[in-house]
Amino acid sequence: MSVAKKVLIVDDDPAIVMSVEFLLRKAGYEVFIALSGTEAILKIKEHEPELILLDIMMPDVNGYEVCDFVKQSEAYKHIKVIFISAKSKDEDIKLAYSKGADLFIIKPFSTRRLIEKITALNKEDYKTIN
Amino acid sequence: MNTLLVVIFSFGYLLLLFGVAYWAEKRSNQNSNTLKPYVYALSMAVYCTAWTFYGSIGRVADFGPDFLAIYIGPTIAAPLWFLIIRKMIRICKAQRITSIADFISARYGKNTSLGTLATIVCVLGVIPYISLQIKAIATTFAFLVNHPQHTSSSTNISLLSNIPFWITVLLAIFIIIFGTRKVDSTERHEGMVTAVAFESIVKLVAFLVGGIFVVFFLFNGFDDIFSRAAAIPALQKSFTFDSSYNYTDWLVMCILSMFAVLLLPRQFQVAVVENVDEKHLYKAIWLFPLYLLIINVFVLPIALAGQLLPISSNFEADFSILSLPFVYQHQEITLLVYLGGFSAATGMIIVETIALSTMLSNNFLIPLILKVTPFKKIFIHKVERSIKNIRRLSIILILLLAYAYFAEIAESYSLVSTGLISFAAVAQFAPAVIGGMFWSRANKNGALLGIISGFIIWFFTLIIPAIIGAGLLPKEILSEGLFGLGLLKPNQLFGLSAFTTLTHAFFWSMFINVLLYVLGSLYTKSTNQEEIQAELFINVSKYRVAYETSVNRTGQIKIKEIKSLMEQFLGQEKTKQLLTHFSRRYQLNLLQEDANADQRLITYAEKILSGVIGSASSRILIESIVKEEEISLNEVVEILKESQQFISLNKELQQKSEQLKKASDALELANMQMKEAEIIKDDFLYSITHELRTPLTSIRAFSEILYDNPELDTLQRQQFLATMIKEIERLSRLITQVLDLEKLESGKQSLHHQEIAIKKLVEDVLHALSQLIKDKNITLSTSFPEHIPIVHGDQDLLSRVVNNLVSNAIKYCSEKDGEIKVMVLENEGCIKINITDNGEGIPDKDKNYVFNKFYQTENQTKKAEGSGLGLAICKKIVELHQGEIGVVDAETSGACFYFTLPIEIIS
Question: Which domains does chain A have, with CATH numbers?
Answer without folding.
Answer: 6-129 (3.40.50.2300)
